[in-house]
Amino acid sequence: MLMRTDPFRELDRLAQQLMGPGTWSKPSAMPMDAYREGDEYVVAFDLPGVSAEAIDIDVERNMLTVKAERRPTAKADDVTMELSERPLGVFSRQIVLADTLDTQHIQAGYDAGVLTLRIPIAERAKPRKISIGVGSGPKEISG
Description:
Elements lengths: L8 H11 L12 E6 L2 E7 L8 E6 L2 E8 L18 E8 L10 E5 L2 E7 L23
Antiparallel strand pairs: 1-2, 2-7, 3-4, 4-5, 6-7
């Protein structure tokens, strides 16, 4: 069995702990996948533990912005935190969308901590066949 290791994972976790949680002025990045599925472009963001009401999606021209905030859970007075590795704070990601995408018809779904955006490919960007007209031969154009 192969295991993928990331030598910088612990360094990233330590840096995030030292710098503190993301804020609205300096948000942390969120992991994402992007792929084409048929006539749609799909972007999936990992946001475990974030409620749907804490997610903000904006599109301005061809700039897609996703912001989310994970707040600490309320704890009783007698709870002592032993280990806390789940990041809290604000997460954000901006993506420049191609002009070939139809930003007027983006659909968003949120399930099991994954925000999925489906962006249709614009009609003008879809492949199409061009018919060739058969004529009597080359014609001279005079001006």
